UniProtKB/TrEMBL annotation:
GO terms for biological process: double-strand break repair via homologous recombination; nucleosome assembly; somatic cell DNA recombination. Belongs to the nucleosome assembly protein (NAP) family. InterPro entries: NAP-like_sf (IPR037231), NAP_family (IPR002164). Keywords: Chaperone, Cytoplasm, Nucleus. It is found in: Cytoplasm; Nucleus. Residues 301-337 have a biased composition (Acidic residues). The keyword Iron-sulfur does not apply. Pfam families: NAP. It comes from Glycine max. This is Nucleosome assembly protein. GO terms for molecular function: chromatin binding; histone binding. Its main location: cytoplasm. Residues 295-347 are annotated as: Disordered.
Length: 379
């Protein structure tokens, strides 16, 4: 599938992006761009001398832009690292309250006394499960069978990795009857963090307790009448589960013989896998309390509504290109656009009513939850 004359050497590019020195990164990119320019010099040669001179100046401008962009990425990474450190004390307080190691009393946080009654409800039960189920992307991945195990989820953290570039997610679990792992990790290796371009993902192998595997199900089939074997026939099948997240799709080492349809399916699976991981990193972890109460749903759906309107606008533009350019068409489009906006307004109003009732119920149940500033295989 690769062609040495026309494509990047991925290994070289990955190595360059792993360098900490910005100057080395810029030089590597410049060298690669120049080599590509040499391969496609026929484009420049086809231009007139005056136009070619202008393009050369434009290339110099592009080089200056790339240097500034590399500096931007460097400073942005430093700024993100700074604020990640500032967030940590808030995440620690959130962890302590959620898991009942500290108690909230009249606005103050105090340590939980060890002699509390055992039957007293501690912390915020099913905090992370509820937060994830309120997110549309994650809700599709969580099966009813998964919920029992996810109730033991105590915390989720993420961190950057430098060699190779990427990030990892750590899921911390209390002792549970499903698996022995106390931490399940998902690591993403990126070719380019800022695009982003995913190279591969690695997940923890889950050590399931016997008969507790959630990524497989056992099917029992009665033997046919008259069969000598009277025992039921058992068959194990893979099934949908959030915990498949820790057994991500893998790119074969030799990808030259991959069927086009198989390659497309693999790409879709990797994109979906990254979407789940980035959703947990960018939405769930920093705003877990708002996802738990349901407040984050409203803001997220407003964004979806805007995307829907953009998609509909594009579809309308395509329809106009296919139709005759007369005045009647413009009137029809205006009327359709008006109907679409009214439809969206109705959806927003209905959603607001539902969410207002839902958040009110959750907040009245436990005022201590209002801490919005604090922020693959089976054995």
């Amino acid at each position: 599938m690769s062609n040495d004359k026309d494509t990047f050497n991925v290994a070289d590019l990955t190595s360059a992006l792993n360098e900490d020195n910005r100057a080395d990164l810029v030089n590597a990119l410049k060298s690669k761009i120049q080599s590509l320019a040499g391969q496609h010099s026929d484009i420049l040669e086809s231009l007139s001398p005056n136009v070619r001179k202008r393009v050369e100046v434009l290339r110099e401008i592009q080089g200056q832009h790339d240097e500034l962009e590399a500096k931007f990425f460097e400073e942005r990474a430093a700024l993100e690292a700074k604020y990640q450190k500032l967030y940590q004390p808030l995440y620690t307080k959130r962890y302590e309250i959620v898991n009942g190691t500290t108690e909230v009393e009249e606005g103050a946080v105090k340590e939980t006394a060890p002699d509390n009654e055992e039957d007293q409800e501690k912390g915020v039960p099913a905090f992370w499960l509820t937060a994830m189920k309120n997110n549309e992307v994650l809700a599709e991945e969580i099966s009813e069978r998964d919920e029992g195990a996810l109730k033991y989820l105590k915390d989720i953290k993420w961190s950057r990795i430098e060699n190779p570039k990427g990030f990892k997610l750590d899921f911390f679990f209390d002792t549970n009857p499903y698996f022995t792992n106390s931490v399940l990790t998902k690591t993403y290796h990126m070719i380019d963090e800022d695009e982003p371009i995913l190279e591969k993902a690695i997940g923890t192998e889950i050590q399931w307790h016997p008969g507790k595997c959630l990524t497989q199900k056992i099917l029992k089939k009665k033997p046919k009448k008259g069969s000598k074997n009277a025992k039921p026939i058992t068959k194990t099948e893979n099934c949908e589960s959030f915990f498949n997240f820790f057994n991500p799709p893998q790119v074969p080492e030799d990808d030259e013989d991959i069927d086009e349809d198989v390659a497309e399916e693999l790409q879709n699976q990797m994109e979906q896998d990254y979407d789940i991981g980035s959703t947990i990193r960018d939405k769930i972890i920093p705003h877990a309390v708002s996802w738990f109460t349901g407040e984050a749903i409203q803001g997220d759906e407003f964004g979806d509504l805007e995307d829907d309107e953009d998609d509909e606008d594009i579809e309308e533009d395509d329809d106009e290109d296919e139709e005759d350019d007369d005045d009647d068409d413009d009137d029809d489009d205006d009327e359709e656009e008006s109907k679409t906006k009214k439809k969206h307004l109705r959806r927003v109003e209905e959603h607001n009513l539902v969410m207002a009732s839902r958040v009110s119920d959750l907040q009245s149940a436990s005022s201590s939850r209002s801490i919005y500033a604090e922020c693959h295989l089976c054995s």
